[in-house]
Amino acid sequence: MQHTTPARFSNSRGAAAATWLLITLAGLLATDIPSIAQEPAGGNPRPANRLAKETSPYLLLHAHNPVDWYPWGPEAFARAKAEQKPIFLSIGYSSCYWCHVMERESFMDPEIARFLNEHFVCIKVDREERPDVDQVYMAALQAFSTGGWPMSMFLLPDGRPFYGETYLPARDRQGISGFLTVLNGIVKAWSEERGDIERAADGLTEIVRRKLGSSGSRRKPALTLAFAAAGRAALAEQFDPEFGGFGFNAQNPHRPKFPEPVNLVFLLDQERRDRRKKEVIRDSAGSPAAASGGAVKPGRADPLFMVLFTLDRMARGGIRDQVGGGYHRYATSRYWIVPHFEKMLYDNAQLASVHLMAFELTGDARWRDEAEATFAFVARTMTAAEGGFYSSLDAETGSGEGAYYVWSRDEVKDVLGAGPDVEAFSQVYGLKRESNFESGRYVLLQPRSLEEQADKLQTTPEKLEAVLRPLRTRMLAARENRPGPLRDDKIITAWNGLMIAAYGDAYRILKTDAYRRAAEKCAEFLLRRLREPGGRLLRTYRAGQAKLPAYLEDYAFLVHGLLRLHAATGESRWLDQARGLTDRMIADFSDMQEGGFFFTARDHESLLTRSKDPYDGALPGASSVAVLDLLAISRATGEKSYLEPARKTLESLSTALSQNPAAMPLLLVGLQEYLDARPDHVLPGSSGEAALAPGPNRPVIASARIADAQEPAPGRVLEATVSIAIKEGWHISANPTGVDVLKPTTLVLDPGQAAADLLVNYPPGQTKVLGSLGTEKVALYEGNLNLPFRVTLPRDARAGKTTVRLRLNYQPCDDRVCLAPASLSIPLEVSLRPPSGPVESKP
Description:
The protein is an alpha+beta fold and 843 residues long. 40% of the residues lie in helices and 14% in strands. A 5-stranded mixed β-sheet has the order 1-3-2-4-5, sandwiched between helices. Strands 16-17-23-20 form a 4-stranded antiparallel β-sheet, with no helix packed on it. A 3-stranded antiparallel β-sheet has the order 8-9-12. Strand 4 (151-155) and strand 5 (161-165) form a beta hairpin. Helix 19 runs antiparallel to helix 20.
């Protein structure tokens, strides 16, 4: 989800249809959202509303709106129930650009404010303070759109949602319904169609509970290494071979692209495991060149290449602050050129750790330097005197979005003057190309690698960097004289835990005392100021005040940081603190019935549902980190008791893991670490290779045989059959399936197999209707079937016995759940006779 391009409506489903019909009849459907010109913040000083008593910088930005805002709490709901008014809930955060636009356009507008105050009870929420509230209502909003912020939700007085949107312009323009028009439609419907609204609220509430609550599936897929293999394959499919990163769309290159450090952590873990399997000692030769110079062509799907290629393209792109260090939240296109300019603590903490891991694996000093540049940015801009770390920097200033970071050529000349050094700076940072930003200005980036630029300038990379370093320092000093972006200076426990982990990694790997001091100072501050006397954590701190009960991610991320600090220093106090917080986490957040952890503690405020959202995103999934914490504590203390809650968590999420393993990459790391710790739990055949017989966790077996006892010659066509046995109650997709969303079963040659021109005759399969796919018929394979095929044997094969290796790719499912996609390696033994006569070239 993102807020650069506010989402349009999409067709809603199921129980949300009543509200969809209601809004459609009111003529409120938006068709498109254009770019909004930056408007200066203005207006006369106004009286303060209730938000003036809050500590959140985001809420304080709205403290002088004429809207009669309430913070989230019982007072607002009590008034809504007493006056029988709908609730308008607005959720955002301080560095959200479109949140600021809507505040200026709508919430500072006297007419809109009067209408809101008369007909609604208005609640404003900082999603960073209350991620639980944000999770619940974002799940409801996504029934209407792709989601995003600012989130604009309409609720019944009891909190059930009945309609939602993201950004809306204040008034109708260019055929787009404005916020005031939507408000009028809601009020009209509230008066005349209350029954429809109630039914829509019931349906949306059920959608939220199904999406965020427990899965309810009694039959859970077994924990196997096949999940990790499937996740790795899925990430390879999502990898952008030209520009790095994941999830691109070549037909829509201006779709935003995020750093997604959780993917990189998983792939680096895969690289470590690959090296251990091959018993390869540390050898970085060729890897850095592959990422920065092109010794290996992009598109290669090995994990280290995907990581280094992505890191290289980001480090040279506009998403990286080329002058001040650190990374912006995301890029507005596939190419990493123009970022959305806010900077988040959690992004920079995770990326610093990834750069350090890359340095540790490859020995390439470039990644050490990249991490240190991020630490310098954090120390300069995001560090509080008490030792904690601030949350974020805004994307805009009074001069517009990104104005603090972009340059014109004349501005660069004013700072650096003229001469060959300045020419080199302009060459390296793209100033000699066509402008890449508005009004002829530039987002600084490195279109070519430093090695390529040095070669073009007839120097070495080391000498060129020596020239550039003082020029960047001068540019940074000049930039700091500009009006700076707003800083959200609240300190969030979870995000600070990630930063402690990054500094702990830095001290362990680089042995720099300043990094140890930064990690320890922050840890001591959090444990002193964001913990209640009884030992429970608090979520946020600002202006001397700690408040709000902590969430699962606060415990899990802080424990993660403390464990990394212990690993770096060897000091037992950090392990003791981590263990105490973990015991509290288990006591307060565990799901005693189905296993795993809830996002909120058992005595937390009751919302529509008690969330168990398992997925990794811009932030790691709290459950993923909790599993890694439990395993790390078990390793550090030798106590096996911590493996049991880890097992229960993994098993509780195994259905989601089997259906979309690439959406949970850190949980895949945890799964493999758990199976390392409990090798007795590794199932035979769990790597995806053929098992001896079909069973609950191995429902498919296959073998190959030659037709009619052939004894072909090299280069000739061989006819053969693969026989497949599928356990009763299970099925695999036919080829074709008849439904686009399902992947067909395929028989292919193993990579590296010398044979070529495989032609498979897939039977049509049996058609059935699966409830999960509506009423559409799907073609399936069940029971026993044969796949006849023809394959051309290698021309250079010698007479005698040889093996043709095939691979069957499939996904086994029963009526309730699908296991992870798997593959079977199928050897076909062939006796070759000496060639005679002409050789066929095609089967």
